[in-house]
Write a structure and sequence with these properties.
Elements: H1 2-27, H2 35-47, H3 50-53, E1 58-68, E2 72-73, H4 76-79, E3 88-102, E4 105-119, E5 125-136
Antiparallel strand pairs: 1-3, 2-3, 3-4, 4-5
């Protein structure tokens, strides 16, 4: 009778602990960058210090579309991930427009590019450009 209760109690504990352990494993899956992170990093890249260095000009940067690919394990040479580390990369295809207005003239550049976003050694988001096409439209 006591053995039966001990066995039943052991089985109950296992049923509770096994799903908790599998939930822990699932939580270690890296999350992709948010839309805000993608837009912020691309804006920093395509505008740089120009708005500060040239205050008489007006700069705008708009991301029109973000398409996400399947996450995969990154490679140091191909993706620019930290060496000797297992890093998940998140492929992103984005279209965007940069507009620079100065002295009454306007230059509009359209970008169509593919990137891989990942976290660097300091756990900060960064990216590598895989391919990029730009076209000045105005």
């Amino acid at each position: 009778m006591i053995r039966t209760r001990i066995v039943a109690l052991s089985i109950s504990c296992l049923l509770i602990l096994v799903p908790a352990a599998s939930a822990k494993k699932q939580s270690h899956k890296p999350a992709p960058p948010s839309r805000g992170v993608v837009v912020k990093l691309l804006k920093e890249h395509y505008l740089g210090d120009d708005p500060v260095n040239y205050p008489s000009a007006t700069y705008t940067y708009v991301v029109h579309r973000i398409a996400r690919g399947a996450a995969r394990l990154g490679r140091h040479r191909a993706d620019g991930t930290p060496p000797n580390r297992s890093t998940t990369v998140f492929p992103i295809h984005a279209t965007s427009t940069r507009t620079v207005t100065y002295d009454g003239s306007k230059t509009v550049t359209d970008f169509d590019a593919k990137y891989v976003f990942f976290r660097d050694e300091f756990r900060e988001w960064t990216f590598t450009i895989k391919s990029e096409r730009s076209k000045i439209t105005h």
